[in-house]
Amino acid sequence: xxxxxxxxxxxxxxxxxSGSTFSGFAGFIDTDIGKExxxxxxxxxxxxxxxxxxxxxxKTGTMGNNGVPDSGDVGPIDTHLRLIADGADLWKMSRDGxxxxxxxxxxxxxxxxxxxxxxxxxxxxxxxxxxxxxxxRTGPQFAFDIGVNENGQKEMRFVYVAFESGLWFMQxxxxxxxxxxxxxxxxxxxxxxxxxxxxxxAIKFAKTDNATxxxxxxxxxxxVTSGTTAAPFWSDLVRRDLVPTTTTNSTKDGLVVNxxxxxxxxxxxxxxxxxxxxxxDYDGMAYDSTSQxxxxxxxxxxxxxxxxxxxxxxxIHVSAAEIPLRTKVKxxxxxxxxxxxxxGSNETSHQDINDSCSVDADHPVDNHFxxxxxxxxxxxxxxxxxxxxxxNDAVNVHIHSQLLEGDGCxxxxxxxxxxxxxxxxxxGEIEPxxxxxxxxxxxxxxxxxxxxxNLASSF
Length: 459
Description:
Blueprint: E1 8-18, E2 21-30, E3 35-41, E4 54-55, E5 81-86, E6 89-96, E7 99-104, E8 112-115, E9 123-127, E10 133-137, E11 142-148, E12 154-164, E13 167-176, E14 182-183, E15 198-207, E16 215-224, E17 230-237, E18 258-259, E19 276-278, E20 283-288, E21 293-300, E22 307-308, E23 313-314, E24 317-324, E25 327-339, E26 347-359, E27 365-371, E28 374-375, E29 379-389, E30 395-405, E31 414-425, E32 434-439, E33 448-458
Parallel strand pairs: 10-19
Antiparallel strand pairs: 1-2, 2-3, 3-4, 5-6, 6-7, 7-8, 9-10, 11-12, 12-13, 13-14, 15-16, 16-17, 17-18, 20-21, 21-24, 22-23, 25-26, 25-33, 27-29, 28-29, 29-30, 30-31, 32-33
């Protein structure tokens, strides 16, 4: 029971640095008065520190539901805030109604609305026990970080669950450091659903180049994989306006989605006798520069749970997933093949290629790529690509191709032509197009195939 008139929820902490001074901040939602409460310790050094926490009076974007202009729907449970330190500045992100807001404490400035369509309720529906949808309460449904973009400029990026025109979807965006320009690229959007399909978003910047400060922006989240289960996924964010040739940041339907599974099992809300319940509402990401892996931790109620209500789950657990930072080579292109007929019309086929290989120190070789399209039930093209990690995060790509001809589409036909090519794709670079022409040369023959490949490297 509360004893001092205030119940705090939605914890966030950060430590800023100004010269040799480190200041600590703790942020909460004061659910009894419907406002944010941000507390500061001016100097956290020493054991114990010489000072106490005092409540901040600067413009941190205090929200209230008492008719003030910066009003919101801060209720007994339904909101959170996030804090991130950037040198001497403290950044805060919070939700006010459907507005996603950012404030910079060290600049004592007003808030900036970075998105007007934030999902206003932190619940996700699951169809459980054959009884239809039951809702589980989750976390803040937004996150942000500060890092460096593809041009070497410092910027803030964020990710959140959006609700618009009756649909839910995951959306990411970016802002300049002075918050004068904030955008939400359409390619940074996951497919929309009639009910929330993703929840618990988190984002982290990993510096991979000490000279330029550039690195990788990665988001993680939990995705509903069926009516009763969820699993963790990850996606990378690349600004297409800065890297126009990138093919790694999006597909036609949204972000490239990579499952953390296996080996992690799917997650299932624990049994309950109530309509709604609690999944867990604390989560986050970190980057380990030594092992070059992203770490993702989140609370969940998957294992050993015997009871659940809207406020709690017994027992609640902490789960974690580790995601290696991998060098990826995106492989796109086409295979156009002609089966020349001595009698009748020639037969042709077209094959699009859209795949990638991924390597790191623990997995230095990726040779999964293999395809063999067949044309006219006679001509088979073998295309195999293997990738091997090279120094300085470059990737050696070996391309093997063959033209086979015979009866049927088997891969044991007679080999009529073959060609191998090797390319080294430097980190962050795009190779000139690979052109391979295979031909069956003989009297009254003319079977041929044109293979065109584009190789682009990214993390």
